[in-house]
Fold:
Amino acid sequence: MPSQNLNRISEDIKREICAIMRTVKDPRVSELISVVRVEVTRDLSYATCYVSAFEGMEASKRSVEGLKSAAGYIRRELGGALGTRHVPELRFIPDDSIEYSARISKMLEK
Structure:
């Protein structure tokens, strides 16, 4: 499968997961989280989603725990939105890139 197709699928999954995360009712999932990037394996069996929260790494870790428990719901909704034959298994990993970029921005302002 060409890498362009994988990139397109990764971006589609990222966009749909961002929309689906807003409907998750788990209290551990912060409202200020974002999917930073999605990496899909070549055989489309796994999708690794890097999740970052504006509140910091601890909020990201809490949100990832909530997303892991809601992975079945997210995967089902993702299958309906993408319309593909196979929906990859989702893996969520906490990331601190939003907190890091906010810290850099404050340093630049000073």
User: Anything to note?
Assistant: The chain has a mean pLDDT of 90. The CA atoms of residues 24 and 49 lie 16 Å apart. The domain at 3-109 is CATH 3.30.300.20 (GMP Synthetase; Chain A, domain 3). The first helix runs from residue 3 to 21.
